[in-house]
Amino acid sequence: MAALHMNISCLIFLQVLLLLLSLFAQTNAQGLKVGFYDNTCPKAEGIVKKSVLDAIKKDRTIGAPLLRMFFHDCFVRGCEGSVLLELKNKKDEKNAPPNLSLRGFEIIDNVKAAVEKECPGVVSCSDVLALLARDAVVALNGPSWGVETGRRDGRVTNINEARANLPSPFDNITSLITQFRSKGLDKKDLVVLSGGHTVGNGHCPLITNRLYNFTGKGDSDPNLDTEYAANLRGRCKPTDTTTALEMDPGSFKTFDKSYFKLVSQRRGFFQSDAALLDNQETKSYVLKQTKSYGSTFFKDFGVSMVKMGRIGVLTGRAGEVRKKCRMVN
Ligand code: HEM
Ligand SMILES: *[C@@H]1O[C@H](CO)[C@@H](O)[C@H](O)[C@H]1NC(C)=O
Ligand SMILES: *[C@@H]1O[C@H](CO)[C@@H](O)[C@H](O)[C@H]1NC(C)=O
Ligand SMILES: *[C@@H]1O[C@H](CO)[C@@H](O)[C@H](O)[C@H]1NC(C)=O
Q1: CA 83 – CA 79 distance, rounded (Å)
Q2: Secondary structure, 3-state, the chain
Q3: Which domains does the chain have, with CATH numbers?
Q4: Ligand 1 centroid vs 18 CA: distance in angstroms?
Q5: So which residues are the catalytic ones?
Q6: pLDDT in tens, the chain (329 residues)
Q7: Which of 209, 219, 121, 126 shows the shortest CA–CA distance to 170?
Q8: 92 C-alpha to center of ligand 2: Å?
Q9: Which long-range contacts (CB under 8 A, 24 or more apart) does 299-302 make?
Q10: Residue 167 known to bind ligand
Q11: Cβ distance 271 to 277 under 8 Å?
């Protein structure tokens, strides 16, 4: 009898200990944790995943913009859903010049509506973006990771903040490193997250300077492989402002490791991609990922995405849980 009592109290003690451990271990300093909605909306993650799979089944090119959307959200005011807000006067982030081809807003609306139907007012738009980004990468055959949730939505969007906070495809390595550092991300995060360009498209006007008259002598960017430059000139005439090209030719709908091989061959699409060869640390990462054994990109990508997902988050009682992602409550 005594032994039985001992066992039961031991068990209870262990359970309490485990509960406490899981509470402390999973919640990071900012109050985000994997599985934040496990009790309040247990079906949320499944609903998002299914919606993404359905959307990507219909149109596989929608995956890349969903990933990019999370990056744009996090770099401007933090990951708090401001990229989705619309102002009547159009002075919102969506209307800032770096928005070229930002798309997928209807999918986000649909996912949010489905989640609202399941549990009204519980799951934030910023968390929907974080989950969508992961599920899009998975659907494109990329890695998976545990997405921290618990973000709340902001109430402000501003066209000038998007201009000021988003890196430009014309930026050099010094400038890229500085901009990432200002968001709490290091050189490794920069090179790892740039690997997101293994999927999706870029538009001609962002590379015409590399193809024509780079230094004013009718030349092309010396950091661009000459054969690839000729190929791109064939598809981007100097005045073309509308054509979109695959950034990872041949596998732009698959999240794979080929981005790093391309960059190492001086076939990075933007100057900002090519720039990764101009710093010792980012360069050595690029070269390491080109080896089929020893590539750590898939694992690293999840780690850096989680880190990016912590930028400037609102948690606890800050902000709100928007009912509709395009407008504040
Ligand atoms: C390092 C700084 C970065 C710069 C300068 C940059 C710049 C750009 C630009 C200019 C485009 C093409 C827009 C267009 O012409 O339509 C683009 C596309 C894209 N970017 Fe980035 N980006 C950066 C980092 C990231 C990060 C961190 C991610 C995500 C992890 C990301 C994911 C994407 C994706 C998926 C696309 C393709 C979008 C589509 O197909 O519509 N980028 N990026
Ligand atoms: C991007 O900005 C332009 C004008 O600056 C606007 O016409 C366009 O609708 C915006 N794109 C998105 C997806 O909101
Ligand atoms: C990099 O870009 C910054 C900002 O545009 C500029 O001030 C700096 O001189 C550039 N650095 C190099 C090495 O070109
Ligand atoms: C190339 O750039 C130089 C200097 O900006 C300019 O004088 C020249 O007209 C340009 N050539 C072409 C073909 O655009």
Answers
A1: 9
A2: CHHHHHHHHHHHHHHHHHHHHHHHHHCCCCCCEECCCCCCCCCHHHHHHHHHHHHHHHCHHHHHHHHHHHHHHHHCCCCCCHHHCCCCCCCCHHHCHHHCCCCCHHHHHHHHHHHHHHCCCCCCHHHHHHHHHHHHHHHCCCCCCCCEECCEECCCCCHHHHHHHCCCCCCCHHHHHHHHHCCCCCHHHHHHHHHHHHCCEEEHHHCHHHHCCCCCCCCCCCCCCHHHHHHHHHHCCCCCCCCEEECCCCCCCCCCCHHHHHHHCCCCCCHHHHHHHHCHHHHHHHHHHCCCCCCCHHHHHHHHHHHHCCCCCECCCCCECCCECCECC
A3: 36-165 (1.10.520.10), 173-307 (1.10.420.10)
A4: 41
A5: 72
A6: 444 454 555 555 555 544 454 444 445 557 999 999 999 999 999 999 999 999 999 999 999 999 999 999 999 999 999 999 999 999 999 999 887 779 999 999 999 999 999 999 999 999 999 999 999 999 999 999 999 999 999 999 999 999 999 999 999 999 999 999 999 999 999 999 999 999 999 999 999 999 999 999 999 999 999 999 999 999 999 999 999 999 999 999 999 999 999 999 999 999 999 999 999 999 999 999 998 777 999 999 999 999 999 999 999 999 999 999 999 99
A7: 209
A8: 9
A9: 299/143, 300/188, 300/192, 301/137, 301/142, 301/143, 301/145, 301/192, 301/193, 301/195, 301/196, 302/143, 302/144, 302/145, 302/146
A10: yes
A11: no
161 is in an annotated binding site: no
* Ligand 4 atom closest to residue 217's alpha carbon, by position in its atom list: 1
